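User: Hey, quick favor. My workstation is busy. Could you predict this chain's structure for me?
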Amino acid sequence: MEPPEDFLPPPECPVFEPSWAEFSDPLGYIAKIRPIAEKSGICKIRPPAVSILGRGGWPPPPFPLEVEGPCPAGGESPLGGGVCL
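Assistant: No problem, here it is.
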């Protein structure tokens, strides 16, 4: 099926890549970027890179994590507080 001739694809959504310092308070960071994200109605937040060995002493975030990729035998996320997909 061909798209209609007058179809215009939607614009790209904004993508945010916070540092660990910015992301240490994830809900505060979301509040900070909210005015930008609301303009498009959606956004993507790429969290800071995480080593499979841990986050260097950072406390676990206040929400569960889902990690894609290899998982230990127990199925628990190596980051704690979540499960591997």
